[in-house]
Amino acid sequence: MGIATPIFAQDNLATWPSYRTVTINTSATGANILTGPITQGNLGIPIVVNLSVANEPDVLTMANANSVRFSLTDGVTELPYQLVSWTQNVSAQFWVWVPSVVADSTAGAVFNMYWGKSGVASTSNGAAVFDTNTGFLAVWHMDDSAAGDTLTDATGYGHTATSVGAIAPTSTLALAPLVGAGKHFTQGATCTVAATTGCTTGTGVLGTDISLQENAASNLLNTNGPFSITAWLNPIANGGSAGRMAVFSIYDSTTTGKQYSLGFNNGASGGTQWQFIDDAVATGNGEYNATFATATPGSVTAGSWQYIAASYSNPTVPPVAGTATGILISKITTAGVMTTTTSPGGSGAFVGGTGIGTTATPYIGTNQFSTARPRYFGGDIDELMIHNVVRSAGWLMLSAQTENPAVTTAVTLGATLSNVIAPTVATSPASQSSTVGSLVNFTVVATGTTPLIYDWLHTHGGTTDTLKRDTLSALTDTLKLTSVPLADTGSFKVLVSNSAGSVVSGSATLTLTAGPAILSSPASATIILGGSIKFGILVSGTTPLTYKWMHLHGGVTDTLKKDTTSLLTDSLALTSVPQADTGSYEVFVSNSAGSATSLPGVLSIYTVPGAPTNVTVKGASGQVTVYWATPPSNGSAITSYKVTAVQDTSKHCTATTADSCVVTNLTNTTSYTFTMVAINSAGSGAATTSAAVTEINAFTAKNGFGLQMAGSTMLLRMPSLSGEVRVSILDMWGRTVWNRTVSGDIGQVTWNGNSNQGSAAPVGMYVLRLAFQKGAGNPASAIQTTFVKQ
Known about the structure:
This protein is mainly beta. The chain has five helices and 61 strands.
């Protein structure tokens, strides 16, 4: 048959936090197996690892053994195990399959035990430990429920045993069990060796026999060899009655009574002894008539655990009575003393050929070769195993030594070591939405051996940077961003590392909403009435932004409604602006993050100036001076005034800032009216028309009189007259500014513009008066005219 190492699912033990080395000591200070081999090929050996609060307190603090694992020292290749028992803070037992063990070594085999990882399920698997590919046909740990009427086979073959006797085996043992629990078998107290009497229900208490539910497809227990039977046995004193008491047997009643059995004979000469027997052909009262091998007389020690192994190694050459061909029986005491015999006893011979038939029925605790003499076993049984190979002496000794909890040096555990577990991310940071200037925290949940190093990364605009501006939080599992700017939008992830490796979390997106910020408010403006204006604003902030324009006029604030389209944008357009649109304009801007109000922009509206008022006209020779009061400018400064003669529009004058101007080159004695307008950037205002004025100038009656102004100097030309002439300059209130008396024949008089006191006379209109002396021959005593001094 093909034999292979057990195959089962493997864990990533690098993620387990703690482990210890487990060492099998086969030297004289340990299991005391000084010669090999122990393991054969790749069959390996299941050994028992005992934990106690003294040698493994940190493991036993766990509530259960779910996280316990075993592996080779590479930390990768897991070893199959089966949990036997677990009592928190007290003790535990495990079966562990080990692939190879060498003899006479303090480190005959070394492997690792791991524990402490949360959230994992147990991988205990008896079928992997007692794998059918590593030489096991049936394994009964004898630790089933207390009722004991069913025994489960730990291998994958499923040889389940069920009780058919009067009394089922119990878990109340005479001695404390060695591995897990065990079963106690009660033997009939009045059984005798008399063939005619036997053991019947009417003569005493029967023992128990357990028949097996055989796997009909394989009938693997119906074998001619090679095979071995091993068990821990504690027989009662003297076996309870004379005769042979079977621990395990198989009997085929249809094939000339072929059978084999492991038990003991308490009536043997020289003392009770263990026997591995065969009945080739049932004779007489149905008992066996041949013996394969018999241990040394007196080898059965009542009231004590002993490890018994019987093996038959040659399936093609049956043994001959009195020879030792391929047959042995061994006994190992709890003190580790092993005795082995290969000497068959009794008479008869094993019959080869077809072997035991397929209808043979196995039994535990009896042989059932004869209903008259069923041969019940009395005592305790633990760890009963059927093998389809012959185990080596070293294998048997190591199995017995590690199963015996009294042997504490065969399997030892090293100090607890910390397994550096590479980090893994259990929960990545979550995406968030927030506002500019707020506090944002990103958190990652990572597992692994501490210390863990966190390196937060920010990706923005296609560039990934390691965050350095917040050194403290950037090295922890929580990244704290305070007063976040808009530049912090993007994705965030974290690199978590330790000495065993690193891992990068998933990315979290940060979406920031910036409240509106007014960068430029509406600018004040002045426009012409009926014109157009567009107010604008420059705003930063996350879109969409909502705009609400407001008009403040006359102390009243109104939300503008007449221009729906522009009211909802960053600009406000006004056309055909009326006077009522003057005032202040501001805009309220908002989004989901906040709001802001701009500074106001003032709108001023102007039009043409008003009409001049209080217009008066003063005539002079060939000219008039027009006076007026300044009219309203209507929003735009008056830049000039224009006076025009209605009767001759070519006769006009223009002033800029003065409140009068002189129209010259008029025709004396002609009646004139004048229009006056004020002018600003909007144009000419309404005109004001003056009253009519006619200039009758006495100077025209006198040939030769003439008046000429040259700046501030006046020149008077006179004809030749007799006598003297009094020349006077009067202001408009009749006060004398300057005067002279001259001879009538002087020809001309010049006034330099100064008063009699020598100071310059103000610019304005003055009266020139000529008074003639008597005898001068003039028809009038005086004449006068007005003029304007520049």
